[in-house]
Amino acid sequence: MNNKNKTVVRSMDILNLFIEHTELSFQEIINLSGIPKTSVYRMIRSFEEMGFLEKGSDAKYRLGLLFLKFGHLVSMRLDIRKIAYPFMQDLHNDVKEAINLIVREGNEAIYIEKIDTKQKVRLYTAIGRKSPLYAGACSRSILSFLPDAEIKAYIETEELKPFAQGTITDKDKLYETIQQARMEGYTISHSELENHTSAVAAPIFNHLGEVVAGISIAGIEANYKGENVENFKEKVKKVAEDISRQLGYIKE
């Protein structure tokens, strides 16, 4: 184990103390962890700066609010995945195409579930993989339904890099596709993240009416034309609405 790994392990040893202890003094952390005083001091200072630990007026340390944020994100993702999975399974059995579920992570989207057992050709998508919010129907289904101010700030600051031959790299065109998505309730992409693949996606909303996820039907581009697109868009919109309803969303 190299020095860097030792530091990480020791840091986790300190944080793990707070699983069983609500608050601890500096000396108690030293006693319980068995880590030298100077090392404990250095790591605690770093934890404070990053928001992992907070020091109260009584000189005792407690877990910081950053853990609340992480806990909320994990809880939200697990809840959405658990609720969405049976709907995704039914949709996959129906259309025989890959079904993807994503959530937002900063200026990116992360795939948290995928079902593609009945699809003969595997796509690039995978659980844990990330993509920018502007590229691909599933990611853009989140971007398109964010508040106007967030969309404006995102487009003004984000560099639109090409990933495949159909990636949208023009900001005016991106605005147009967002407005179209808002009117029609779904997004579509062709060769944006990988050549010769397409997707049709719809947004998922929570009880506050906030977009929290996106769900897509994805596959080989040749299958996403004419009547197939009309069929896929209606089915993915219906499933997105069903999942949103399970999350407490009431459509106005």
UniProtKB/TrEMBL annotation:
It holds the Pfam family HTH_IclR. Transmembrane segments: none annotated. Residues 66-249 form the IclR-ED domain. Keywords: DNA-binding, Transcription, Transcription regulation. The keyword Transcription regulation applies. GO terms for molecular function: DNA binding; DNA-binding transcription factor activity. InterPro entries: GAF-like_dom_sf, HTH_MetabolicPath_Reg, Tscrpt_reg_IclR_C, Tscrpt_reg_IclR_N, WH-like_DNA-bd_sf, WH_DNA-bd_sf. It comes from the Bacteria. SUPFAM superfamilies: GAF domain-like, Winged helix' DNA-binding domain. Residues 5-65 form the HTH iclR-type domain. Signal peptide: none annotated. GO terms for biological process: negative regulation of DNA-templated transcription. PANTHER family: HELIX-TURN-HELIX TRANSCRIPTIONAL REGULATOR, ICLR FAMILY, HTH-TYPE TRANSCRIPTIONAL REPRESSOR ALLR. This is Transcriptional regulator KipR. It comes from Schinkia azotoformans LMG 9581.
